[in-house]
Each structure stands twice: as C-alpha cells, then as structure tokens.
Amino acid sequence: MQTIDEKEVEDKLKEQFEAAGKNLDSKINIVIVGRVSTGKSSLLNAFFKRKKGDELASVGAISGVTKTTKAFQLSKNVTVIDSPGLGDINSDNSEVTKQAISNGFDVGILVVSGSADSSQKQHYEELKAGCKKVFVVLNKIDEYDKKKAALESVCQQWHEVLGLKDDEQIFKTCTDGYDPQSDADAQLNIRGVDELRKEVLDFLERCGKDLLVRKLIEKNSTMAKRVIYTCMIAVAGFAFLPGSAIPITAAQGTAIMTIHYIYTNEIISKNHVLAAIPLFASQSVGSSAFLFVKSFLPPTGVVDVVAAGVAVSVTLAMLSTVNWMYENGYNFDNKQEVKEQYKKFYQLLKEIGLKDIFNTVKSGDKTAIMALIGKFVKD
Question: Which of 47, 104, 253, 307 is within CB 3.0–4.6 Å of 273 for a Cys-Cys bond?
Fold first, then answer.
C-alpha cells in the first residue's frame, strides 16, 4: 500500500502557514474622510461597537497629530485615520500617519451628510486613487425620519454629484448619541452601521485580513466558530479530490494556527501544529487511516461521500477541542486533557450522526452549519 509522503505534508503546511501567518501579521490602514460635523467620529465608534463612555477618541487618540487629523492605533495591526481629506493626511507629520501612508490604505470611507456638495467629489476621487476599496456613507439620516422621500432624493443627488455607478452603494447610517453633550441616560441611536460593517469585513476577508479587525469587535468564540465553519467547508470540498489528505491536513493545521492567534495574539509554529495533529488522529485511527488511504484512490461516488463525512466530522471535533483548550487556559502540552476533550466532542458527533453532519455541511446552508457548530462551541 502506498504511504503518504510526510515531507510533502510538511511542505504543504509550511506553504499554508506562511500565507496565513503573513495575513495575521499584516497591517490594516483605514481612512475616514469627510467635512467637519458629518459624524465621522461617531461612525467610527459605532463601527467598532463602542459604548457610551468608552468612545474611540477617549482611548485611542495619539498625541502629536494636527488639529485636523486624528490617528488611532487600535492594535499593533490596525490603524484608523480620521481626516477632512487625504490632503490633510499628507501634510500631517505624525509618525503613525507617515507609516499609514507608506503602507497604503486598505479601506477608505467617505462620510457625507445633508444636501449634496460637489466639493466632496475631489475627496472621493482621492480615496479611489489611494485606497483598495472605498465606501460612501450618508450619515445623520435621522434628520429625515419625518421626510423619507427627501432622504431618497438626497441620496440620489449624492450618487450623481460623486459620479457613482449604478451598482455602487451609498450606505445610509445614523450614529446619534455619542456626543458628550447628550444626556447621560440617552440611548444610542445606531442604524445602518451593521450593513456597512459587514461589507467592509467581507472585503477584508477576501484580502485575508478580516480577522485583524474582527478581534476588535467580536468575541473570541464567535471568531473561532467562523474559522471552524470555513475549515469544514474547505475540508468537505477537498475530500472529493485525489490526494486529499494533504490539503485536508493543511486546512486543519491552518485553522489550529488561526484559533491559537485569536486567543493568544501569537502565531504558532508549524512544528507545534504538526505535533498536535496526531493527538487527534490517535483518537480515531481508523478514520484518519481511511482518509490517508483514500487520498491515493481514484474518486468514486460512495467512497468520496464517506470520506468527506469522516473528514468534516473529525475536523469539527478537532477544532472544537482546540477552541475549548484555549478558552479554558490549556495548551497542547496538556495531552491528556486534549484527548479527553476530543473524546467528548467525538461522542457528541456520533450522537448527532456523521451522516447528518455531512448532509448539513453539504447543503451549504450557513445558518444551519453555524447552528451545528454552536452545539460544540458556545458563545
């Protein structure tokens, strides 16, 4: 019987790790541009889910910037710059701003409010030239709560003034309540920001960078569930390909590395992951051996469906165990604990049914798949 080349597995893992590690250690620069009083700061607070009393400016403002430009170093990876225009940013002499300019901007957000102003087209064009992706936001829509027809008219005017294409969206938002002059018991009035945030994160996900921003606004377990979902979908697809054992193992290893980063802010070495994977394989020798043998067989309907079911189920139990370990303060040195927790999760798998699990993943229904993962990873 042909055996899998261990070096080939390590080389593939190294390749995957280098790509994932590069993304996790990359920088994200976001610039938000707009006239004074368009609500840029409030929009940033709402975007990053800040509460009243814990506004962005109160914790992240960096001293030494000009009166017109504010730079926020939200983490070692994420910088946000708030400015009336890119010209003001270019004239700013703070180190944070200089670094952001040299690295380039990933996301640009143009914030407008009120009646359309043709002078903002220049800012929009500058953002398009200097950013990988630009989002246009019409803020303070609460001003039109009693005149909704006027809101649509103003939105269309901005569309025309900025020269947007028919398929280019203007996000309509309200971010009222962060003003320090607001009553202490006044509730935040946040609307439309969830849609904007989703689109920005979707774009960053396509760039492999969304996790860096999600860490600022989501729970660790929520991010871990997203990682598990992505890995399960990938593994289900790989199982139908010749030589599937290698990409399956690489996907599992990369997911372990990502969950490790979520909880520790550190990038785990490939050697640590290579040493950890057998801890899970040893709990289901038949399944793992089957996957490795299957990778050298020609694809056939029955075999591949079974293999995919096993691969997806083992992946779910494996990554649920990894999440549980980090969530509860353990690491892979606690080998006995790893084995015990994996055994519990795999028993839950069997109770649900491997076939049912695979059918859920095969359906492509994200809501159903996330509900399944929620049985293993609790928020």
Answer: 253
